[in-house]
Protein 1
Amino acid sequence: MRISKKTDYALRALFTLVENYGRGPIPIRELARRNDVPKRFLEQIVLDLKRQGWVDSLPGVRGGIRLAKPPSKITMGEVVRHFDGIIAPIECVSTSGYKRCSQEPMCRFRRVFLDARNYVTKLMDGATLESVARGLPVAEKEVFAPGFVGGEGI
């Protein structure tokens, strides 16, 4: 599964807003700077986040962007689906981007992709912004953990 830059930037902004939840809005310029996101692109993303009811904005000198919903009420699955459309690794196991394949009646490897979709969907839909924000960042040694087999090209 790969996510788009738009989803990546939306998640960065949302997690910064989670860190600041209950302490007032963050100016869009500051939100862009802290997340290394082009301000104009972030403005478009914020409009999209507003339409979903996840953030709101306050005008004025002390204005900015803040979460409109508690972080426990927004999941990573919702955000990824909103911006990227699907979580499934291939179209023939997607509930929203489904496309019939001529090999479906005899395909064996499709089962692995279906299992992967189900696992990732369950993980993402259970990952609220609140619960994820309580976790620690991933350390490089975790990505290249000894004993991990088949990591080439991931």
Protein 2
Amino acid sequence: MTTTRGRAVPRPDKVDAVDVLTTQLRESTASVLTEYRGLTVGQLRNLRRDLAGHATFAVIKNTLGTQAAVAAGVGDLGPLLHGPSAIAFVTGDPVVAAKALRAFAGDHPALVIKGGVYAGQVVDAATIGRLADLESREVILSRLAGALKGSLAQAAGLFNAPLSKGARTFAALQASRAEAA
């Protein structure tokens, strides 16, 4: 920062970085903050590959992350931003991204999930863990579709029952008249 007449003026590159982070926080369906101390470049590359299609993973400066969170209107991430921090900006299903991060953290204990942003609120690591325990959106929708299909098949059977009973009764009546004649 430079000073002008006793006031601090932020550097343009830092202003741009905050703007980019703010935009990503606003456009993400969720964000997961992590500490990556001890992970190699290759491990971070593998994590990014695991998250591909669901989230982007970026190393951030804590002060810029705090400023971006305030600018995005998601609250104060300051308590979560300590040590070397990285953030996964979730663009797809938050459950799938949370599962991928938890699985990677299980294999690589150096990745620590610190919390994040979900539904516009700052959440802790336990909430991210509960999110990872949920079924994905696709699984929930397929179960709902299966339940609806079963209900519709049952309803169709119930609606057809009086018609088929009437048809059997009519056929029996015709058979009895044919025998009587």
